[in-house]
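Checklist before submission:
- one chain only
- standard amino acids only
- sequence pasted in full

Submission:
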Amino acid sequence: MFACLPSIDVFLSHQLFLPFFISQNCFIYNLKDSAFYRAGIVQHKKWNAYLQKYIKERLSGSPVQDGFDSFRLNCEQALEALKNGQRFIKPKQGHGVNCRQYAVFDPDTKRIIKQYTSRASARLAALALLSAGYQCEWDLTEQNAKTRVDNARDPSKLLFGYQWIPTDDLKSGKFKMKEADRYVGNDVLTSQADTTTVLILKEDTVSGSEIRGFESEESAYQDWLQERTSSVAASDDNAEDINISVFVKSYLDGKASINGIIWKRVLPRHSPVPEISTNKIR
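Returned file contents:
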């Protein structure tokens, strides 16, 4: 592709291809709705918008444009060839419970956060989270870690705030779902009795769906902390800036987002105000 191009065009082509390589890998090597897959969607949309606004017209009719169009077509065909637009990690060869893949599942957002190739890998990951200082709901040790991982498929026995479920059970639906609380889901958001207290709304701008509502800044802030922990964008923040005032300023009252997830203020819905007669009292 680059054999007949001047060196400056080769350099330009590499700069154009790189962002698409990044998003392409996010789609190929990660499960849909995982943090990395969603990051790929956001990155792809932003780069494509920038390309259309500032670069495309300047490349019109050039060899670089032809090579770039061919590259994008190859990317689209490669994704189309994959099942459901994604590649699942192949489990290790062997049989038995220890060779089953495990998925770390967020019971609130219904997303897969991470996937491990075996129960042994999931056990090591849980111990690594404990060593890294993350708070655990249980007294986790090397001796009971395997049992805790097994028990964490139950939404009432979460491990680090997540369900840990064999991937094949997750795909087939053979697992318990967390019971919906009074804030979660669109059913709540459309119920007038409950939405009178919803002041903050969590929204997925990638899919356009409303995820959940919150009654206070504090509850929205705690949810933001959980989302930030599972996000690939979390490392961009300074540790000393992780506090509720920054969340309110940058997210509630600003335009910041985490992989397309935003938190915004909404007006509470009240019961209709009865009309007052305008007739004069005699």
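Reviewer check: The two ends are 91 Å apart (CA to CA).
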